[in-house]
Structure formats: structure tokens, C-alpha cells
Design goal:
Layout (H helix, E strand, L loop, with lengths): L2 H9 L9 H21 L3 H4 L2 H12 L8 H36 L5 H16 L2 H12 L3 H26 L3 H8 L4 H35 L6 H11 L3 H30 L1
Length: 271
């Protein structure tokens, strides 16, 4: 072995400890939390898997067959599907633009105070679930897809803003520093160096959140935010099970289509 190789081996950091007091305490704490959860919830596993429960479940599911294929209902379902798709797409687009705008201070480009305050705002935005945002927006904007779109945008802004900030923080600084040293302005250096190398990962995060938002948009209708969810709640409340089955099938098809499109696009961006 050469002297150079020996020197490199000696410079390597020590292997991390497999066990440490902090790791042990964390593992014990998580284990106790899981055990306490099972004990406190008092789950009725026997009732869940009893013959009576299975019979009632089967009887309930039989009420959904066959799905209603009335042309008028199919037309209404198609429009509600488009409404759900539009809510998710527009909500994600608004969130991506706001997230990128907020990611700049959140990544520390405008000082520690701006970073801390922006990250606090993003944490609050993403900590509030979409259903809670929708309930708030329904009071402000009334029933309909507008409230659902804003609810999706509010929650997703918190998620994407934090993810985008981490992407910008982890971007290699050499290209931007070189442009700055050669007289480029801060905004031009960012636009021509940092943003291009960060954009593929940002787009991948945005598409992944769109996948999540199409599911969330279908659920938001349950509180009156429009789309397929609102149709589903209406027909289930009237015990029109076959009609509800048609809406559920439309939800599954819509989610599968968006998932496939998003997955293919992300694969194309990352390769």
C-alpha cells in the first residue's frame, strides 16, 4: 500500500457508533409509545373479524352492485371528475409558484431572521390538514370548488415551500459563485446557475404532490368543496348505493390516470 493510500485511510472519519444512549432512549420511547397506543385504544379485533361483522360487510357491499350507468349520471360524473382534476391541478400550480417564492427566504438567502420566520409560516401551513383548510375556506368563500382549490393550495404551499427550500440549500454553490465573481447580479446568477440544476427535482416534487392532491380533492368534496367527493357524499346520504358505486369507480379511474401520468413524467425528468 502506498503512502498516499495510507494517508487517505487515516483521514477517513470514524464509523458511527451502532448503539448510543440517545439511540437507545429513542428506540425505547418509540416502543413504549406503540405499546401504549394499543393498550389505550382498546381495539375490538374479535368483533372486527367475527362472522356477524363479515356478513354485514358483505351485505353492505352487495348494495353497490351493479353500478348505475344512466347516461345522465355518467355525464354528471364526468363533469365532476373534470372539476376534481381542475381543483387538484390549479391548487398544485398555485402552491408550486408560492412555494418557490417562499423557498428563497426559507433557504437562507435573505438572512437568518427571514429564514426562521418563513419556515415557521410553512410549517404552520402544512401542519393544518386540507380538510381543516377547506372548512375555513368554506366559511370565507362558500360551497364549491373555489374553496377546495384554495384549501389544497394553502396546505401544499407549506409542503412544497419546505421541500424547495431544502433543494436550494443542497444545490452545488460553485456555478452561482462563479457567475457572481464574474460580475453577474444575484438574481441572474440564481436564474442561470442554481435554478436550472434544482428545477428537475422541484418538478418531481410538484408532480408527486399533484398525485396526492387528486386524492385529497376527491375527499374535500365531502365537506362541500365540489367535485366527485360532493357527489359521493350526496348519494351516500340518500343510500343510493349503486349511484355511489359509479362515483367511486370514477374516482379510482381518475386517480389511476393521474398517478400513471405523474409517474411517467417524473421518470422522464429524472433520466
Amino acid at each position: 500500500m502506498s503512502t498516499h493510500d495510507t494517508h487517505n485511510n487515516n483521514d477517513m472519519p470514524a464509523a458511527p457508533a451502532l448503539f448510543s444512549p440517545l439511540k437507545l432512549a429513542l428506540s425505547v420511547g418509540i416502543t413504549l409509545l406503540v405499546i401504549a397506543s394499543f393498550v389505550s385504544l382498546n381495539m375490538e379485533w374479535r368483533a372486527l373479524f367475527s362472522d356477524d361483522a363479515a356478513g354485514k360487510t358483505w351485505e353492505f357491499l352487495q348494495g353497490f352492485a351493479p353500478p348505475d350507468i344512466n347516461p345522465a349520471l355518467l355525464s354528471k360524473t364526468a363533469f365532476a371528475s373534470f372539476e376534481t382534476l381542475a381543483m387538484s391541478a390549479l391548487g398544485t400550480l398555485i402552491a408550486a409558484m408560492l412555494g418557490l417564492f417562499l423557498a428563497l427566504p426559507a433557504s437562507g438567502r435573505f438572512g437568518k431572521t427571514a429564514k426562521s420566520s418563513t419556515r415557521l409560516f410553512l410549517n404552520v401551513a402544512r401542519a393544518i390538514p386540507e380538510l381543516v383548510w377547506a372548512s375555513i375556506m368554506l366559511i370565507a368563500a362558500g360551497l364549491g370548488p373555489f374553496a377546495g382549490t384554495i384549501a389544497l393550495a394553502a396546505h401544499t404551499t407549506g409542503v412544497l415551500g419546505r421541500l424547495f427550500a431544502e433543494v436550494l440549500e443542497n444545490a452545488a454553490p460553485q456555478a452561482e459563485s462563479t457567475l457572481r465573481l464574474n460580475g453577474a447580479s444575484a438574481i441572474n446568477a440564481f436564474l442561470y446557475a442554481t435554478l436550472p440544476q434544482s428545477l428537475p427535482q422541484m418538478l418531481s416534487y410538484t408532480l408527486y404532490r399533484w398525485e396526492n392532491n387528486i386524492r385529497a380533492a376527491a375527499i374535500l368534496g365531502v365537506v362541500g368543496a365540489g367535485g366527485l367527493g360532493q357527489m359521493l357524499k350526496y348519494h351516500l346520504s340518500l343510500f343510493q348505493m349503486q349511484t355511489a358505486a359509479t362515483v367511486i369507480i370514477a374516482m379510482l379511474i381518475l386517480v389511476a390516470m393521474v398517478d400513471a401520468l405523474s409517474f411517467a413524467t417524473r421518470r422522464w425528468l429524472m433520466h
